[in-house]
Amino acid sequence: xxxxxxxxxxxxxxxxxxxxxxxxxxxxxxxxxxxxxxxxxxxxxxxxxxxxxxxxxxxxxxxxxxxxxxxxxxxxxxxxxxxxxxxxxxxxxxxxxxxxxxxxxxxxxxxxxxxxxxxxxxxxxxxxxxxxxxxxxxxxxxxxxxxxxxxxxxxxxxxxxxxxxxxxxxxxxxxxxxxxxxxxxxxxxxxxxxxxxxxxxxxxxxxxxxxxxxxxxxxxxxxxxxxxxxxxxxxxxxxxxxxxxxxxxxxxxxxxxxxxxxxxxxxxxxxxxxxxxxxxxxxxxxxxxxxxxxxxxxxxxxxxxxxxxxxxxxxxxxxxxxxxxxxxxxxxxxxxxxxxxxxxxxxxxxxxxxxxxxxxxxxxxxxxxxxxxxxxxxxxxxxxx
Amino acid sequence: xxxxxxxxxxxxxxxxxxxxxxxxxxxxxxxxxxxxxxxxxxxxxxxxxxxxxxxxxxxxxxxxxxxxxxxxxxxxxxxxxxxxxxxxxxxxxxxxxxxxxxxxxxxxxxxxxxxxxxxxxxxxxxxxxxxxxxxxx
Lengths: 385, 137
What we know:
The structure holds 2 protein chains of 2 kinds.
Chain A: E1 8-15, H1 26-41, E2 50-54, H2 62-69, E3 76-80, H3 89-99, E4 106-113, E5 127-128, H4 143-158, H5 162-177, H6 190-195, E6 198-201, E7 203-204, E8 213-222, H7 223-226, E9 234-243, H8 265-276, E10 285-287, H9 293-302, H10 311-314, H11 333-336, H12 343-354, E11 367-372, E12 377-384
Parallel strand pairs in A: 2-3, 2-4, 10-11
Antiparallel strand pairs in A: 1-8, 1-9, 4-8, 6-7, 9-12, 11-12
Helix pairs in contact in A: 1-2, 8-9
Chain B: E1 7-8, H1 15-22, E2 27-31, E3 37-38, E4 53-57, E5 61-70, H2 76-79, E6 85-92, E7 97-101, E8 115-122, E9 128-134
Antiparallel strand pairs in B: 2-3, 2-4, 5-6, 5-8, 6-7, 8-9
């Protein structure tokens, strides 16, 4: 269990424009976000001595960023071969690395040309190696196709409806309208959701997240040090990474997963809440990994915000809106802000906890949950101010 | 015309499975020590860690555990003429799950728990795919 409650903090955040066609190298995007986070913290490049990132589908190695921005001596660099499951785990790793004395000031970043470069949703090669030989030959290839299979299972088990998924899409879009970073800022209605094109049943186009060129970064250091820096520190109160048995052979594979109406969240909930000394009732705002609308439901249930099977009714009636009981994805999420693979959720959490989210600010935020991952493994944190 | 869809790259663990499919048999691994039946193929039993196993023939019957209907083809050039098609997780009577296509039924008629049985479709001289069709009532 994460045992460093409040000892480490996020002292800086940075991001690039989120676009469909950056016209730039991924390295340049990563460097811009990292430089912005260093500047936000009021530090110098020479203060940076560690990097953690993750690089499923598209990224650049940490040493490439360190080289471009001229870090004199990186003492720690870790490029996780992971996807959205890692977006919170890299921040927890940064804290662990500092605790171990391997570095003092660590940049966590995610960078990609996810639309104009390698498209994660764009299919795979025709030669189906390894575990893929038991999925791709049947035309089961993309992540929307993977997750739709899980969503159907929830519908079978619990009667979850399209309208419940639509409520998530419509709510997050309304949040994005108030977010200048967001790629999709035109409001949508439930009618728009229901009329959106069926991609892979039960998913419509508006159930599926965006594809984004861009990068973001968060800077982690000790809370004691962060208190002397430019910004109010955002404390890492707790966190967890993991999943259940049979997490599969890659991020797509869940052939042996015991029950597709639940995901990793139920398996990390105890560690998460115990590490933070809090529970669901203590959370003011949550930024929950939303590669698809449906992934929200499994995480709300798994982390204990509602009972198993009740995620669909939980999100209805305005509860998850900005002025609701549990505001979710106040930036618009992966569905409407952009797909920076979940690290953009951490950036938004920091902004909410600093009170600098402008028109989308939720009043009086003291705690924020962030999660990352949708299927068999994932990570989560509780941040506080 | 050459087969344009993804094809399995047979490896040492999966060769017996695909060779059996070519002969019209659906084979599963069974641990030689504890008897646990498993799929997909692996070298070690996840229950007892034994590296010894035997291949046993499945009855080829099961039920639809979950399913999707692919409407938007990805990659387009490969699946444009295939959509809509059904991909399902099938729970075999032997207790393992397998992904495959449900054929011989309209996509909108597939239901949860529907009984299905294996049917083999030759893709290339080397590869025959195990698909599933509704069990005749």
